[in-house]
Design a protein that fits this description.
The protein has two domains: 194 residues, D-Maltodextrin-Binding Protein, domain 2 (3-Layer(aba) Sandwich), CATH 3.40.190; 93 residues, 3-Layer(aba) Sandwich (D-Maltodextrin-Binding Protein, domain 2). 47% of the residues lie in helices and 20% in strands. The chain starts with a helix and ends with a strand. The chain is an alpha/beta fold. The chain has a six-stranded mixed β-sheet with strand order 2-1-3-10-4-11, with helices on both faces. The chain has a five-stranded mixed β-sheet with strand order 7-6-8-5-9, sandwiched between helices. The longest helix is centred in the N-terminal third of the chain and has 32 residues.
């Protein structure tokens, strides 16, 4: 009788162990099926991308089920182009001006959030080319990357001083090396570019440099942009990406010094530069009406300067994706709809 009971208990134990093993296997398979999704993020190395690097450094993306693959571009406009062409799923830190251009082309790209408002576009000129006052820029060879926000602010700066882009010789300079070297060597008379390259060009010229801030108090937006196809098929991933950025914003408020150190490390910036530029950026996750107004202003400028065949300003609300940010950070979307 005892032997019979013992055998029965052994059979039951084996069955329980087998069942538990099967459940653990199925559960492990379930976890594998729900593993983190890999996405490619296009970026250019400007501090307007600060929230992204903080989220990456603090592993917020991984905790929200996202694996990041990075793809570097020399400019925000190039990163946006890469996203439109399918090279990246999301582009970060893109200024609003390239998106205005894409809207005129009816390209289905949309901003899913803004992570920065900054003031860091400068014009650096050579004194030995007779550039002392803004009026001296007339007829000079001025470099910038055509199609970027630096072109817009250069044009607007000239307009506010009684000139237009037609009064200068505009030279398309596409790379960070060119932004510094071309003006340092004298291939061009001045360069309109963002930090940290403006400071680098100034330092190369030394006492021969003349420098102006050319944003005229209009902030530069740092957008997070994707395309309609990806957003339609990956709404939850987009939401988790935004959630990671929101967590990074909370970290900035709680740990400002650590946040600054993280950005300095990831972008390879020196401490002196960070002392200056960190104060020139408002790091926050929003989509507000000031973005729409800035895009409308830039669109009108493009129309006036015959940089587009269009004659009407697009409805830029069609180029904003608010669903994710509405869910993740209620109250941060302040668009007149």
């Amino acid at each position: 009788m005892n032997n019979t009971n013992t055998a029965a208990m052994v059979v039951i134990a084996i069955a329980v162990i087998a069942g538990l093993g099967g459940w653990l296997f199925l559960d492990s398979q379930k976890n594998t099926d729900n593993s983190a999704e890999s996405i490619t993020v296009g970026y250019s190395p400007f501090e307007s991308t600060a929230l992204f690097w903080i989220a990456e450094d603090r592993q917020f993306f991984g905790k929200n089920g996202i694996n990041i693959t990075l793809r570097k571009y020399d400019s925000g406009a190039a990163a946006l182009e890469g996203t439109v062409n399918g090279e990246a799923d999301i582009a970060i830190g893109i200024s609003e001006f390239p998106l205005v251009r894409k809207a005129f082309e009816n390209t289905r790209a949309r901003a899913i959030g803004n992570i920065d408002k900054g003031d860091f576009i400068y014009l650096v000129g050579r004194r030995d080319r007779g550039i002392v006052n803004v009026s001296d820029l007339k007829g000079k060879r001025i470099g910038t990357t055509i199609g970027t926000v630096a072109e817009f602010h250069l044009g607007r700066f000239l307009m506010l001083h009684g000139m237009t882009l037609r009064d200068v010789i505009l030279v398309d300079v596409k790379t960070p090396e060119g932004w510094i070297e071309d003006v340092a060597k004298g291939d061009i008379d001045a360069i309109a570019t963002a930090q940290p390259y403006a400071n680098a060009a100034r330092d190369r010229l030394g006492d021969n440099a003349v420098v102006w801030s050319i944003q005229s108090r209009q902030p530069l937006f740092g957008l997070v942009i994707s395309n309609d196809e990806w957003l339609t098929t990956h709404p939850e991933t987009a939401e988790n990406f935004i959630r990671s950025l929101a967590q990074a914003e909370e970290y900035v408020h709680a740990h400002p010094l650590e946040s600054r150190a993280i950005v300095q490390k990831w972008l390879g910036l020196d401490a002196g530069y960070m002392d200056t530029v960190w104060q020139q950026n408002q790091v926050s996750l929003t989509l507000d009406q000031s973005l729409v107004l800035a895009m409308e202003d830039e669109a009108r400028w493009m129309i006036r300067n015959n940089l587009t065949d269009a004659t009407e300003v697009p409805d830029f609300r069609n180029y904003l994706y608010t669903d994710g940010l509405d869910k993740v950070k209620p109250g941060s979307v302040k668009i007149i709809r």
